[in-house]
Specification:
heterodimer; A: 283 residues; alpha/beta; Rossmann fold; six-stranded mixed sheet; four-stranded antiparallel sheet; B: 362 residues; eight-stranded mixed sheet; 12 strands; 27% helix
Amino acid sequence: MTHLLEVDKVGKTYAMGGILGSHRVRAVENVSFALEAGRPEIFTVIGESGSGKSTLARMILASVPPSDGAIRFEGQDVAAIKSRRDRLAFMKRVQPIFQNPFEAFNPLKKVDRYLFMTARRFNGVSRRDEVERQADEALRKVGLSLAEVKGRFPHELSGGQLQRIAIARALIPGPALIVADEPVSMVDASLRTSIVNLFMTLRDDLGVSIIYITHDLATAYYISDRIIIMQKGEVVEAGDARTVLADPQHPYSRELKAAVLSPDAAITGSALAETDAATLEPT
Amino acid sequence: MTTLTQPGAGAAMATPDASVRPVLSVEDLRAYYVLDLFGVKREVRAVDDISIRIMPNEIYGIAGESSSGKTSLIKTIAGAIQPPLTVVGGKVHFDFRGKSIDLYSGAPADLDAIRWRHLSYIMQGSMNVLNPVRRVRQAFIDFAARHIAAPSRRAFEEVVVAHLDRLHLSPHVLDAYPHELSGGMRQRVTIALATVCKPEFIIADEPTTALDVVVQKRVLAMIREVQREIGSSLLFVTHDMSVHANLCDRLGIMYAGRLVEEGATSDLFASPKHPYTQHLISSLPRIGDRTPREGLKGTPPNLADPPPGCRFHPRCPMAMEVCRTVVPPFVTAGKGRRVACFAAEPETIPDGIANATRSIAA
C-alpha cells in the first residue's frame, strides 16, 4: 500500500540564544507515523502548549525543515523541494488552516481576495468568471456561497464564518491533505460543532485526509480516527482514537483526560479540586 | 478581613433569601452603541433590558456566543464604558460592605473610590494587562498601592508577597518581566493583581480561553479557591459551557444582547428550558459519546437591526407565529429560574394573536 504521508523518525532542534551561551531545544523527538493513500482519515495530534505539535505541523507543511529523519509526501521527500514550481505543486496538494481566523485574514482587505488569489495561483485560472465559479464552488462545500462573502471585510463576518472561509480557501486547489493547527480553539464553543462536523464531511465526501492538531480531547474523541499524544516533543501514546481516549495508558495521557472539564459536572459535581491549584507549575 | 467561606453556599444562593442583600443589582439595563455619523443615526443594542442580582460569595456565570453582548454588559457593570457605548436606561447598583453606589447617577469620583478596592477585573489577554517593559512588581504598585494602607513600601510588599503565597506563586515573580513567565503563570499574576485588595466583587472576562486544558483546570481551581478564601462575588464570563458547569453557582444565558434564561447551574444543565440553552448544552462534545451533533444553523443577528419579536426566532427549531412579532417576557419559571420563551412558558403568550402557536420553524 502506498503512503500519502510518511513521517519517518522526525526530530527538530532549535538553537536558542546568541553566540555566547546558546543552548539547544529539542522541539520534536523521533516522531513516526504514516497516512495511507486512498483511505482518508482524521489523524489527531494532541498535546499541551510547548509539546512540539505546531512544529510538527510546520515540518509537514514544509515551512520548517526537520533536523533528523524525513517527511515524505506521496513518496517525495518534502525537504528536497527547492524550485518554485515544485513548491507550488506540493502546496496544491497540502493546505494549511490556522488557529485564529481573525489573524489569518488581513483586516484591511476583503476576504474574497484570498479565495480569488488561491484560484489564480494554484489552479492557473485567469478569467474572472471562472475564478468566481471556483470560489463559489469551494464556499458551497462549507455551507456558504460567494454571494454572502463577496466584498466583505473580516470584521463583518463572525469567527465561525471566517474559519469556514479559511477552510473553503484551503479546498480550492483540491488538496489531498489538510493540516489544521488548532482550528477551533479561537472559535466559540457553540460554533465548534459545525466546524468539526465540516471536517467529517470533507473526509467522507471529498476524500481529504486531515491532520487535526488540538488540545481539546472532547472534539478529538468526537471526530478522530487515530490519534497520537505528544509530550515535550515525544509521542507518548498512539493508536485508535476511541481506544486511547477511553482508556489512556500513559500517565501524561491520563492527566490530560483528567483535566477535561465535563459538562456533566453541573449535575454530578465539579471536577475542580482545591489540590489542583497547589500543583501549579513551580515559579 | 474575616473570610466568608461557607461550604455549600452555592446551592443556597439559587434561592436568594430576603435577609441577604445582593452585592450587585442590575435593573432593566440598556446600553447601546450610539453612532451619529454625518446625521445618520444608528443604534447597536448590545445590552437590552437586562436585570440580574448577584449575592455575596456567589459565582455567577454568563454564557453566550461572540457578539452576544457579554463584554458590553460587563463593561457597563464595571463602569468602564466609553462612547459610543452609552447607557440608555436602567441602573447598576452595588451594595458593598459599608458602601453603596449607583453607577450612572453619581459623580465619576465615586467610581474611582470603589474601583480595585471593592470591584476588580480579571482580563482576558494577560499580555495586554501587564506592561511588557516593566517588572511585575511595578504593576502591583500601580494597581494596588493606593488602596492598601501600608505605612511603607516594604510593608506593602509584605502584603503582596503574602497574597502571592496564597496563590502558590513565589515572590520571585515580582522581579520578572511578563515575557519571562509562561501564559498560565501570567494569567495567575493577573488574578493575583485583581484579588490583592480582597475586593467584594470580581469580574472575570474569559480568563482561561487562551490556556490549554491542564493549565486551564488549575487556574480555574485557583480562581475558585481564592474566591472562597476572600468571600467575594465573582461574575464569570465565557463562551465555554463546560467551564461554567464546573465553576458557577448560577448561570445566565445571553443571546443577542438579552438574557434568555437564568437558573442554578445544575438545574439549567439538567433541564434547559430555552431552545438556545438546549442547543448549547446538547452540542457540547463529551468523551465517550460520538453521537452526531448538529451545529446551530444561521448566523447571530446584527444588533444594529435585530429581528423583531424574539431575537432567536429565525434560528429556533420551536419558533411559532407569535415569536415573530412579540418579545417574550423574562418571567420566573420555577424555583430560582427565569426564562424568556413562549414555547417553554405558553401561558405568557398574549391573547388576540391569530394562529399564535402555529409553527414557523424552517
